[in-house]
Amino acid sequence: MLIHSLDETAVRAGLSIGLPLANARAICPELTVFDADEIADRKTLDDIADWCDRFTPLVALDPPYGLYLDITGCAHLFGGERALLQIVCGALSRRGFAVSAAIASTSICARTLTRHASGKIVADGEEAEAVAPLPISALGAGDAITAGLRRAGLKTIGDVALRAPHEITARFGASFTTLLAHALGQGDAPISPRKPLPDYIVEKRFPDPVATDTVIAMNLSALAAMLVTAMDKQGKGARRLDASFFRTDGAVRTISVDTGRPVTRAEVIDRLFRERLDALNDPLDPGFGFDLIRLSASRTEIVVQQQRDLDANVHDNDELSALIDRIAARIGGKRVVVHLPEDTHIPERAVLAVAAQHHLAAAAQAAWPERIESEPPLRPLRLFDKPEPIKVPFATVPDGPPHQFTWRRVTHTVARVEGPERIAMEWWKQNGDGPTRDYFRIEDEAGLRFWIFRDGLYESEPPDEEVEPGSVRWYVHGLFA
């Protein structure tokens, strides 16, 4: 059992990370110990990152305890870089976190400063001067490299920077040389934000938190109008919308809505979010109130203008798309599906269920097989997801139907039969091992119609002879209306 992390009081007592717990108790008998929980630590870091979204949409993780915030173009909204740094550190400190933060033009330089110079803001071009007096452990290059540099008499980052790059590379590798260069402000490694940057963002900050449904809905409607105005300038419409609600206690709730067609009207956005909020299993809880509401369009498309005065189909498609969007907002987009035909003769694979919002146009243009007039349907209206086995006491071989079968503990006597329709499996996908099916349309004495098949073929026997099924299996695959 080793020390995983510790606070400043434990450090002053002479403890360090990696020290055996027994040794730590010998040094500090009054030590208070908690079991390390890396999963909970990661969850907490994710929660803090969600809270930091109120300052910038570009937030990246630096495991196990760090965060990167790209505040380019955002600092002036909070009174400048110094004020923003104080807001972030002060808010986290009040919640019981020990915070170390710094601002620099490169992410590696800022991270290096946080380890030994918290609260420092480095101007562009002064990175090398700022990190030079720091110990080499601040680079976070690993214990082996840090020990090797110290054995070579290089104790600070400035000492290492005075050496030629090829000397450092030959001894410690190119990755460490790149890390050192970034810390000195010579280039930068791009951060990887947790969330992709939305195409459009509008938000409303409140000096006094809001908590009533009426005020929240009113502000969400105002944000929808602002978002539509911003998108309209570039001729775009929203396909995915995200509403984020930032509570004063740091909790963040994001509600997402997808649309089948680009949305260009504020009232449509407002209606979709009303449907979504009303259908939430976990209602939106304002707690002590929201101090920020943000509406973003994370996916947009160019709006194609259509002739709407003469073409009635355009209006019908718009109404159908709007209806699908409203139903999807209430019960979920994955539950509203359309069916597309597939180029296969295997019955259970002939239809593909896809999300209606994203494939409505394809469904409207799908070419389904035409039904022959005055002929019964070749396929049942209800097809089981998985064929259900039936018991057949005897059948006519080699190609005949059963005379009687038992399904779900009910025995059915066959009155009328059509078939067989022989369907072989796709040998090019199954190495020729798939059995051959013979399908029959069957009506029993009660007038119920079934679609059953024989899985496999009987051995060669004299025609019209009744034999036991043996290894051949029978299934019911669907029901006719």
What does this structure look like?
It is a single chain. With 481 residues, this protein is of the alpha+beta class. It has 4 domains: 1-36, MutS, DNA mismatch repair protein, domain I (3-Layer(aba) Sandwich), CATH 3.40.1170; 37-183, Orthogonal Bundle (DNA polymerase, domain 1); 200-304, DNA polymerase, Y-family, little finger domain (Dna Ligase, domain 1, 2-Layer Sandwich); 382-479, no CATH class. It has 15 helices and 16 strands. The chain has a 6-stranded antiparallel sheet with strand order 9-16-14-13-12-11, with no helix packed on it. Strands 3-6-4-5 form a 4-stranded antiparallel sheet, sandwiched between helices. Helix 11 packs antiparallel against helix 12 (266-278) and helix 12 (266-278) runs parallel beside helix 13. It is elongated, with a radius of gyration of 34 Å. The chain starts with 7 loop residues before the first helix and ends with a strand. Residues 460-469 have low confidence and may be disordered.
Keywords:
4 domains; 4-stranded antiparallel β-sheet; MutS, DNA mismatch repair protein, domain I; 32% helix; 481 residues; Dna Ligase, domain 1; alpha+beta; single chain; DNA polymerase, domain 1; elongated; 16 strands
